[in-house]
Design a protein that fits this description.
Length: 351
């Protein structure tokens, strides 16, 4: 079961324009909605010249603090994370030619979780700023190196997929053992981290994730014809002069790096990477990456913002776990993919 390459459609430019408009609307809603509502006029005053600090009264000054110090970094993070995970999922689905592959399929997310568990459950993560993110990157990096080594030796994506799942299970098992022996305070911090959040700790730079997602979007769009060839199989790619194994390794490195970076900053964010490429593919009715890559990035950013707004429960002081909201969105999409593939498989078998 893998994404097909249908004939070139004409819905791409219009769909991308609509996705840009949807992202602008979701960004404005993310900056306005929360426990304290910021009016649209106040938002324009904050984002306009002067930032609303010198004029407009106390309401605009309060809105400026809320928007610039709290909601803008969170919104930028959500946009970057949604785009990055959507692109990572798209790359994994292309490499493995499997519609249900996602960013965590190589075990990178589980490796990052193991790194975080090692420092938080040991009681040192909270005392050293940035240590949690560094530990997550180290854990994700180790698993990614293992995956790339296997890909270099074997060169079979299906075999790598199985080993990636095994890497993930092993990392999750070690994490569980650490949790069983951890003190209550460290265990609580790890559980909170596992919920996922776009609210970054003080000192973190949300623009890093956004820049990585933007650079990936540009690179994949330029390389779109070569990536399209992988959907027809490595033999076809080799027949037109593409080094399939090298391209597989590059794409795996790209997706794994994006996944590790996101997990290090925000914790494990579920379902975005699996669901977003299918939503984008359904809108543009094409698997051609020149259109699908920017559409996936825009769709992932908008979906992440919508999920974050829902998790905030606007008008309330309570905040829902982000991954719970993501699952409510992602599960129906994945289920729809499975059900849609069923009649196609039946038709191919002549039943």
């Amino acid at each position: 079961m893998h994404p097909p390459v249908p004939p070139r459609g004409r819905r791409g430019p219009a769909a991308i324009a609509a996705a840009c408009a949807a992202l602008l609307a979701a960004t404005a809603a993310s900056l306005m909605l929360g426990s304290v509502h910021v009016g649209f006029s106040d938002l324009l005053a904050v984002l306009g010249p002067g930032g609303g600090a010198s004029s407009g009264g106390d309401s605009v000054s309060a809105a400026a603090r809320i928007v610039t110090l709290v909601r803008l970094p969170r919104t930028v993070t959500a946009i970057g994370v949604g785009s990055a995970l959507g692109l990572a999922g798209l790359v994994m689905q292309t490499v493995f030619r499997n519609a249900l592959a996602g960013p965590g399929v190589l075990g990178v997310t589980a490796g990052a979780g193991l790194g975080v568990a090692a420092v938080l459950l040991a009681g040192v993560g909270a005392s050293i700023p940035g240590l949690t993110a560094v530990a997550a990157m180290v854990g994700a990096g180790l698993v990614l190196v293992l995956a790339l080594t296997v890909n270099r030796i074997v060169g079979q994506p299906v075999f790598l997929l199985v080993l990636g799942l095994l890497f993930g299970y092993a990392a999750s098992s070690i994490t569980t053992l650490l949790m069983a022996a951890a003190p209550g305070e460290g265990l609580e911090r790890y559980v909170v981290w596992s919920f996922g959040s776009f609210a970054l700790p003080p000192g973190a730079a949300p623009w890093v994730i956004l820049a990585a997602a933007g650079a990936t979007t540009a690179a994949l769009t330029v390389a779109a014809p070569r990536v399209d060839a992988l959907l027809l199989g490595p033999q076809y790619a080799e027949s037109i002069g593409i080094h399939a194994r090298r391209l597989h390794g590059t794409l795996i490195l790209l997706a794994g790096t994006l996944t590790g970076l996101v997990t290090a900053f925000t914790g494990p964010i579920v379902f975005l990477g699996v669901a977003v490429p299918h939503i984008a593919r359904g809108v543009v009715r094409s698997s051609r990456h020149r259109i699908l890559v920017p559409m996936t990035a825009l769709t992932g950013a908008s979906l992440a913002l919508v999920a974050d707004i829902a998790a905030r429960l606007p008008g309330s002081d309570r905040v829902l776990p982000l991954n719970s909201v993501m699952a409510l969105v992602g599960v129906p999409v994945v289920l729809a993919v499975i059900l849609q593939a069923q009649p196609e498989a039946t038709e191919e078998l002549g039943l």
